[in-house]
Amino acid sequence: xxxxxxxxxxxxxxxxxxxxxxxxxxxxxxxxxxxxxxxxxxxxxxxxxxxxxxxxxxxxxxxxxxxxxxxxxxxxxxxxxxxxxxxxxxxxxxxxxxxxxxxxxxxxxxxxxxxxxxxxxxxxxxxxxxxxxxxxxxxxxxxxxxxxxxxxxxxxxxxxxxxxxxxxxxxxxxxxxxxxxxxxxxxxxxxxxxxxxxxxxxxxxxxxxxxxxxxxxxxxxxxxxxxxxxxxxxxxxxxxxxxxxxxxxxxxxxxxxxxxxxxxxxxxxxxxxxxxxxxxxxxxxxxxxxxxxxxxxxxxxxxxxxxxxxxxxxxxxxxxxxxxxxxxxxxxxxxxxxxxxxxxxxxxxxxxxxxxxxxxxxxxxxxxxxxxxxxxxxxxxxxxxxxxxxxxxxxxxxxxxxxxxxxxxxxxxxxxxxxxxxxxxxxxxxxxxxxxxxxxxxxxxxxxxxxxxxxxxxxxxxxxxxxxxxxxxxxxxxxxxxxxxxxxxxxxxxxxxxxxxxxxxxxxxxxxxxxxxxxxxxxxxxxxxxxxxxxxxxxxxxxxxxxxxxxxxxxxxxxxxxxxxxxxxxxxxxxxxxxxxxxxxxxxxxxxxxxxxxxxxxxxxxxxxxxxxxxxxxxxxxxxxxxxx
Length: 629
Hints:
Blueprint: H1 2-7, H2 10-43, H3 45-54, H4 65-80, H5 89-98, H6 106-120, H7 128-145, H8 150-169, H9 172-184, H10 189-209, H11 232-263, H12 267-284, H13 294-301, H14 315-322, E1 324-326, E2 346-348, H15 350-376, H16 384-405, H17 414-430, H18 433-444, H19 450-467, H20 472-479, H21 498-501, E3 509-510, H22 515-524, E4 531-534, E5 540-544, H23 546-553, H24 564-567, E6 569-570, H25 581-591, E7 595-602, E8 605-613, H26 614-627
Parallel strand pairs: 1-2, 3-4
Antiparallel strand pairs: 4-5, 5-6, 7-8
């Protein structure tokens, strides 16, 4: 009975009500964001492509659209919201793990505008990261307005993230999984209800007024896996390959960012250089695949212009890769036939497979490079869609080679490997295996090949973790010194910060104090296990542990001849007041101490602001656990 009362407290009810509003707002935000991208593209890339029909030289004006876009985006984010730059999701994770779910209200508006301009003018990034950050910002704004607790603020941020993913991909299950696995880092029962509600309502809004309607993101897929044992080794190999490619993509993103910051000092110069490279790739790469489908021919006859394959999100390339079939294999099972001239399946002969391979392979190599350059040049956009793009093109190339050089029974259609590759690369970059599996399933609505997706995604994630334990999201945070620690049964500590538990009134000794003075301080403050040692500039230089004192007392050296410099453990591990207690527990174990100094950077100088006791951390943990049972 008491549990029921706890669930129906005022704040829980309010959180669920807000999740309803966030789900609707997240769905609407996704639709608005999509329309903004199309509008920007219509007046920039599409306008130039239409003009080039009459005046072919006008096509080369595409060189300048990414430059203009990156200049606007860089200025916009630097001026109004620097956290809106980049791919967005790490900022959401940091807000949940370190800042009680607080996201500045202006982030939502700057992010939607900056990312819309970046993608619409040809920036080689995705729209999923931005819509996650936009949805998360909406959740945070509502929680801040009603002054909810840190726990419920974080749930609302996760709910907004789920709504963004759900509406963007028309994938409500993936939205729930992404918010729980990636953003929150746990599947706590008390947080699932608002997240599920927000994800479902966002999908409903998208189904009514969004671009996908009631259809999956990629339609007319007829592939299936019939349990052919001979094909399993190929999926295992693809998982390993995609894991290595995923971790290479992660490293390339941040290497390019470092290279740009180190060698190009001014933001506008980085924007111009990055935009020029992206624009050059856009105008030089052949826009039409060697073997287009009937559907793409139909669109061309209807007057629709094909965007350069390395511009923007690139879903046209992904869609093409997913529909590749080897014409000499047994015909695919089709549930229904579409109108003549609108079939998406691409039937390939052997010569066409070779030419298609050489069209797709450079795309698989260039996309991670151009995405890295776009972000390094100050762009705003996600890495989720580029991961799907890289996975689809890599998988398709892998499948084409298998079909060319292996007997029929050892390989499936190239499009099958494209689907599997999408899930594998996403799992490798994000380390979210379940999110990757479910999102690919919902985007394709094709359960018949879920088993290959599962095995490749799991193996890709394992390989990527082995090479680099940090995901593409965590790495951005760790580079800023904001490594987040999250757990399963210890998730109750995620919302408790060091500043909430640390002791603010604490003893210190000078490095020149002798052993007698140190003992006097220790006796007066017996609850403090380790005493901070300061120099004359009030800077922390070490700590004195109980075992250090005992060791000195057991010697024959007179106490007045020993000072703190002789005893202290130099260069101690300190924690930030903005870390959560899970991170603090990790730091306690690193040096096996019972007290940790707490330092904050003030005016570029480290300043001791408190002491964190292991006993206080464990007491708070017990309190949090009892609160939930």
